[in-house]
Input
Amino acid sequence: MLPSPPVDDRAIYDAFTSRFIFPTLAISVEIGLYELLHREPLRLPEVADELGLDHRAAEAVVAVVAALGFLESGTDGRFSLTPVAQTYLLAESPFFRRELVHFETSTTESLRLAMRAHQEPVDPLAVNIGELPAERVRDFIELMHSMTLAAATGLAEHPVFSGIERLLDVAGGSGSLCLGIAGRHPQLHCTILDLPPVCPIAKGHIDQYDLADRIDVVAANMFQDPWPAGFDGLLFGNIFHDWDMESCRFLARRAFETLQPGGTICLHEMLLDDLKDGPLTVACFSIAMLLHEKGKQFTAGELEDLLGETGFRDFQVTPSYGYYSLVTATRS
Output
């Protein structure tokens, strides 16, 4: 059984995502965000439209600089400047930190391109994994494995899995989440569905933990191929945040069609606060999605709306491990 780490991994994620902070701050100055909001507080769609930006790009940048304390969000969803931003980030201020607009790294340039890319990532990873060279696929899947294995131990403690007998882990990658869940719930059998190049990597990890009798693997494209049937639980771990809203709706519909009546959908994600002003590390993952994928980090309310319109009911959100939460809903 996968052992539980003695402490969670938030500090590691904080360090990992810190590379996005200063480039995002520099870009926010460059695009004129503070001059715009100095004139009047605006909602996120208005910010995007006024600056001519992709909407998810505007949301990601605003979330990061709000989490840093440069913007504040009212209950009406409008963002305005804090005193710190008024003092140091407005070009008209005598204390304007003009060096920010000259801050250049490869991340800054990539982010500059992504701001107007309209859903197309600058350096695609998960959304393009079927076309990557085998070595890069393995490197990416193993990186994701190391990043999610600890969280799998916390996820496995959720009581929802005690009532599930057959769990389909859609785009389950290395199998990290199933390793944690199967090790703690002997009544449960897991099936990992992923692309053919990924499946041998998952099998290797399954064999490492002697769980071949509890976890199997199905090679399939989740968008194009039929899904196996007979499951009372479906798991998506860090999947919805990779994809645009229409793709997420498609996956939710496929999940609803695949689940047995009364079955449970489980989304394992890092969630933005309802006002989309943090936490900082989660906001930085929206920048990562902007650069590498087609999606963003969601709020709990956004996922509730998405699942609700598909027909799911009994929506619940439970913190699971570190920055992660488990979102569950039931097929009616």
The first strand starts at residue 71 and ends at 73.
